[in-house]
Amino acid sequence: MKSNRPYDHRKAIALAKIRENYKCELRCGSTVDIHGHHILDYSLGGEATPENILVVCEACHNKLHSGEIYVESIDYSKK
């Protein structure tokens, strides 16, 4: 399935997935159905960079969008 996202978004998500070894950064640590989620939404000025991408499984991604999980920010500069 081809993504409708611009190249810079797809690249940022791919780099973030590599950074996290294709593992959900949230509660479960799953390696199944891995997605990229903008920490600061693109429509609100969030950048298409790996630093603004949270790597999550589909279940946690759905919880993020439904408000069951809230992420304020993540600072990768300290890793």
Q: What this model shows, in words?
A:
The chain is α+β, with helices and mostly antiparallel strands and 79 residues long. It has one domain (7-74). Helix content is 28%, strand content 13%. It is built from 2 helices and 2 strands; from the N terminus they run αββα. A two-stranded antiparallel ribbon has the order 1-2. The mean pLDDT is 87.
Mean pLDDT equals: 87
Count of DSSP-assigned helices: 2
Q: Over all CA atoms, what is the radius of gyration?
A: 12 Å
Structural classification: alpha+beta
How many discrete domains?
1
Which short descriptors sum up this protein?
single chain; 79 residues; alpha+beta; two-stranded antiparallel sheet; 2 helices; 2 strands
In brief:
By secondary structure, the chain is an alpha+beta fold. Helix content is 28%, strand content 13%.
Describe the secondary structure blueprint for this structure:
Blueprint: H1 7-19, E1 34-38, E2 53-57, H2 58-66
Antiparallel strand pairs: 1-2
